[in-house]
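Q: I'm writing up a methods section and want to include an example of the input and output format. Could you take the sequence below and give the corresponding predicted structure tokens, formatted cleanly so I can copy it straight into the document?
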Amino acid sequence: MDKLKHWLRKPWAGTAAALCVAVLLYEILEHFSSVKGGVNAVLTFLSPVFTGVVVAYLFDPVSEFFKRTLLKKVKKESARHIWGVILTIICVVLVLALLLVSLIPSIAKSVSKLIGNWDSYTAKLKDLLGWADDFAKKHNINVDLSNVHNLIDNALNRLYTVVKDNLKNILGTLGSIGSDISNFAVGVVFGFCFLAAKKTLLTILSLLRRAVFKTERIEKNNLLLERCHRVFIRYVGATLLDALIVGITTLIFTLAAGMPYAPLIAVMVAITNIIPTFGPMIGAAIGIFFLILESPVKALIFFIFICVLQSIDGMIIKTKLFKGSLGIPGVWTMVLIILGGKIAGMAGIILAIPAAAIFAILYRETIEPRLEKRKEKINAPETLPDADRKEG
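A: Here is the clean output for your methods example:
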């Protein structure tokens, strides 16, 4: 490491590094398609490992919770850790089983009902447009709805044609989704294996860090990583809990109001509520779309309910869960969401805000102090007294 620093201090080191980077960048751009294909292949191959690391990281707090509470009387640390992992797996299996037993049949029934009644829904929509056309003519309102009729007919015919012509591609996409689900399942298994081998993996990582960095640097990095960890876990936990509260509240209301597709709408509202800013609007639009085909009155009631619920969620529930902000100005939230979506899709949208908060911490703790030191070194000769300058 010292030899590397010695070579980097040479006058020609910066120029050589810049030339190497330029050549590498040129080769990447020259063979971009091949490089992209190779990177995608490597990422696809390693995706279960990445998924396993994420799963182990997210479920580690659950395992630690069991170790601190139910298993605190177990004296042996290794036994306490293994039992904590086992209890975590049991909880995950129970939650998945509960979802499969309670929600999946209802959602499947709702989807099949929606598909089976599609013709009647389109007929109701045309009748509604016809009624609106008659109402406009009766009251001498100059509105031409004939184009809307033609637009609906053309849209339905085009949808049927697109599905028919692209059936092979659709089946291929479904197969790709099945492959992704299989990789995710393997990644979950890897995740619990990593969680069980947590102590060994952390020991290896610690040895590697000590071989590269000094003790003081490692201690500072540990404090910084701990802060980043708290920010991320706090954000993820609060987001999931908020989505669960909103989903359960929506399910209770839709069932009490006798609305169709209640489980499907509640699940969609809960899932979309994970997405910052735009998520609640997307969930509300999906619910209104399902309900307006069945009953416009119930769709209006649901719209009023979801507006009240999201207002309470934004002003009270999220304020309590997040206990303030993550240090990201509200103006930047939408920009971060758009950039995250462009870079990493849905995962980028969900993780853009905590990633920016962690970057802000890294900037304040590491980059900004170095910039200040650099500034002091540059301005040092200018701040010397005149006597000292003459002596120099």
